[in-house]
Here is the input.
Amino acid sequence: MRIIDVHCYPNTKEWIACQQPYVDALAKYWNRSWTPKGEDEVVKDFADAGVEAILVALDLETTVGTPPCSNDFVSAMQKRHPDRIIQAWAAVDPFKGQQAIGEATRAIQELHMLGFHFHPIVGHFAVNDRRIYPLFEVINELNVPVLIDVGTTGMGAGMPGGMGAKLRHAHPSAIDELAADFPNLKIVAAHPGWPWVDEMTAVALHKGNVSWEVSGWAPKYFPPQLKTDIRGRLKDKIMFGSDYPSMPHARLLREWGELGYADDIMERVFHGNAERVLGL
Here is the structure.
């Protein structure tokens, strides 16, 4: 069965460096070190798992002052390994104004990337903030999808003040409002959205332009109602993602298998919904 992983990070030194000091706090919170890998090692991880990866760029420059894991870097990595890394999500920092708008256009028209990923908590914004709507207007005109993190994050968790990050920025209501204001914009919510899983379910069901990938969580810990809805009313909405390197593929794929879904559900989750919604 084809397996498309719609949410993978490069896991190279450039990616880890762009998240400091958050990544050190995350390592302390999870009691786990973050060790960068070489590009070939990362591609081998994808190959060993049997997944076709979509990489994610990251730009937190106005939040933490570090150089981005740039669109050029991620796009070039994808183009060197097109059989295993089938596409890449671009990143733009909304607070860069016209520079962000210009970079968004370049990422699609020149680099031919898939769409855009947003990390609201670490970026210190909500996607329904009217100050960044000019950026979404351009993305909407470019007719490409967006991947938006929803729910809590380990970034800054356990640190004083959460290192300035605010969980409310990633509430499903922000995605609900964005989807209503841009009905032609394809939105994929990223992660299960805890502690607002029911709210995220409601948004995915109500907004026809919203889908949902549930990366970053071990499937055995999915809430019972989510496990039920994946085989039922959300069966055409859910996509597979890993949040690599946060979760090992071997564990994720094993636990997805242990959920006992019929083959037609797994076909939808592992590739069918992503193929249809993202045009893969």
About this structure: The two ends are 15 Å apart (CA to CA). The mean pLDDT is 95. Strands lie at 4-8, 52-56, 85-90, 115-118, 146-149, 187-190, 210-213, 238-239. Residues 263-278 form the longest helix (16 residues).
